[in-house]
């Protein structure tokens, strides 16, 4: 038994994801566990298809076990997102390797970039080298890249130009911080670039393009597995596809209701940004208007959207001080059950071990304050996600939805 872990979002699951799973199998993986974002994704958006349906597609197409990344972390910056995913794979205790995509496909280059990033993240370097660049109006990621270019050269800095490279670096950093050692397997991104709006000739299209095609009611069947295409069609017919813009009135209400001190309690918010969001919120009559007023070179649109959704759900910066206290199973097959059995056998000697289960009700009954907090946020997030589609979804799905068990 050789288990590989994948940290993913599958928004939607497409041919590139299937290719990564195939390559992991070729590399010796007999079992695959995925830590997947739930109903909200790291770019600061709602997932077009709900987490239960996406997990089912993943298991139908090569993944053996799908565990949800808590929304507190799926709506956080790349370093917290990566750390939570790596920690949860470590918590399983039986994961031998991790597979991740990258634009460069060069493991040594990624390792060097990770060391450069860790070095630049020290308190001294942040104060002396990164902060002065931010004071010139650069966002934190741009300032970090610029500082790394000065210290480590343009080749290392160029790694951070690509989103999959950047996440790969964060996975490597998280492993070092958590003292975890996994076999490393990177799959060079094939076909269309991450945000490309043009498909490749060999059946690959970016998630960005596919989401745009779905919104425009175009056929995506050439770029996704059949069951993913079928679910998209079904959700379209039932008005169940979720969109950030469908939450416009709810989000504008949140902006008009909250004051800067409350906004400042959200993750990744400093007092200056809290004031900016507050002023933009009360001066805006649409989400587009708000994003134009709140967006600056220093604060990326993705960061602003994540903050807005955290404010909507009630996620606080203090929540990120708690590492995921449980693993919610969204789908599994027979091999997935074997992963859980191996995990249980190794739990006693695993310092990162957490409970894994498919029933949120059963998990809550473990009566841990941290579990209760994360479960409460998860339930609220799912209930509010139900307002993001034109057909409003029921308010009990977090506890009543049936998971995929093969």
Describe this structure in words.
Helix 17 (334-346) links the parallel strand 8 and strand 9 (356-357). The chain has 406 residues and is α/β, with parallel strands linked by helices. The mean pLDDT is 94. It is built from 20 helices and 10 strands. It is globular. The two termini are 19 Å apart. Strands 1, 2, 5, 6, 7, 8, 9 and 10 form an 8-stranded mixed β-sheet that branches. Helix content is 51%, strand content 11%. Helix 5 (107-120) crosses helix 9, helix 6 crosses helix 7 and helix 12 (248-257) packs across helix 16.
- Give the oligomeric state: single chain
Distance between the termini: 19 Å
**Proportion of beta-strand residues:** 5-15%
Helix count? 20
User: Given the helix and strand composition, which structural class is it?
Assistant: alpha/beta
Compute the CA-based radius of gyration: 20 Å
Helix proportion of residues, in percent? 40-55%
Can you give the mean pLDDT? 94
Question: Using DSSP, what is the number of strands?
Answer: 10
The residue ranges in which pLDDT falls below 50 over 5 or more consecutive positions are none
| Largest sheet features | 8 strands, mixed
Q: Outline, from the CA principal axes? A: globular
The topology string of helices and strands comes to EHEEEHEHHEHHHHHEHHHHHHHEHEHHHE
Secondary-structure blueprint:
Blueprint lengths: L2 E6 L6 H12 L4 E7 L2 E2 L3 E2 L4 H10 L4 E5 L1 H4 L3 H15 L4 E6 L4 H14 L2 H12 L5 H13 L1 H5 L4 H15 L5 E6 L18 H9 L10 H12 L10 H10 L2 H4 L7 H12 L4 H8 L6 H13 L13 E6 L1 H13 L9 E2 L2 H5 L4 H17 L11 H4 L3 E2 L1
Parallel strand pairs: 1-2, 1-6, 2-5, 6-7, 8-9, 8-10
Antiparallel strand pairs: 3-4, 5-8
């Amino acid at each position: 038994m050789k288990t590989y872990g994948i940290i993913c979002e599958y928004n939607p699951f497409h041919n590139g994801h299937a290719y990564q799973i195939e390559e992991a199998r070729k590399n010796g993986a007999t079992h695959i566990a995925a830590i997947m974002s739930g109903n909200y994704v790291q770019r600061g958006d709602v997932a077009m298809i709900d987490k239960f349906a996406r997990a089912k597609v993943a298991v139908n197409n090569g993944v053996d076990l799908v565990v949800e990344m808590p929304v507190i972390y799926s709506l956080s910056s790349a370093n917290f997102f990566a750390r939570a995913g790596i920690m949860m794979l470590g918590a399983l205790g039986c994961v031998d390797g991790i597979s991740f995509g990258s634009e460069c496909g060069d493991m040594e280059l990624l390792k060097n970039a990770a060391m450069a990033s860790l070095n630049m993240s020290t308190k001294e370097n942040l104060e002396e080298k990164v902060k002065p660049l931010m004071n010139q109006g650069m966002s934190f990621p741009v300032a970090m890249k610029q500082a790394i270019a000065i210290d480590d050269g343009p080749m290392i800095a160029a790694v951070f130009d690509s989103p999959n490279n950047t996440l790969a670096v964060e996975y490597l950093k998280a492993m070092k911080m958590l003292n975890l050692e996994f076999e490393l397997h990177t799959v060079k991104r094939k076909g269309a670039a991450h945000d490309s709006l043009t498909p490749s000739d060999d059946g690959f299209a970016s998630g960005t393009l596919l989401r745009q095609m779905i919104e425009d009611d175009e056929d995506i069947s050439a770029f996704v597995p059949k069951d993913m295409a079928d679910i998209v069609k079904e959700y379209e017919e039932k008005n169940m596809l979720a969109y950030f813009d469908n939450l416009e009135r709810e989000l504008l209400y949140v902006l008009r209701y909250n004051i800067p001190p409350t906004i400042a309690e959200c993750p990744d918010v400093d007092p200056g940004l809290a004031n900016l969001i507050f002023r933009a919120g009360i001066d805006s009559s649409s989400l587009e208007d708000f994003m134009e007023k709140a967006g600056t070179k220093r604060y990326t649109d993705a960061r602003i959207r994540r903050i807005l959704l955290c404010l909507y759900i009630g996620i606080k910066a203090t929540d990120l001080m708690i590492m995921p206290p449980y693993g919610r199973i969204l789908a599994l097959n027979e091999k997935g059950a074997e992963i859980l059995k191996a995990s249980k056998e190794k739990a006693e000697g695993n310092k990162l071990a957490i409970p894994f289960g498919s029933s949120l009700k059963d998990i809550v009954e473990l009566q841990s304050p941290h579990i209760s907090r994360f479960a409460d946020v998860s339930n609220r997030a799912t209930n509010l996600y139900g307002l993001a589609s034109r057909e409003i979804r029921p308010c009990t799905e977090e506890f009543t939805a049936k998971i995929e068990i093969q």
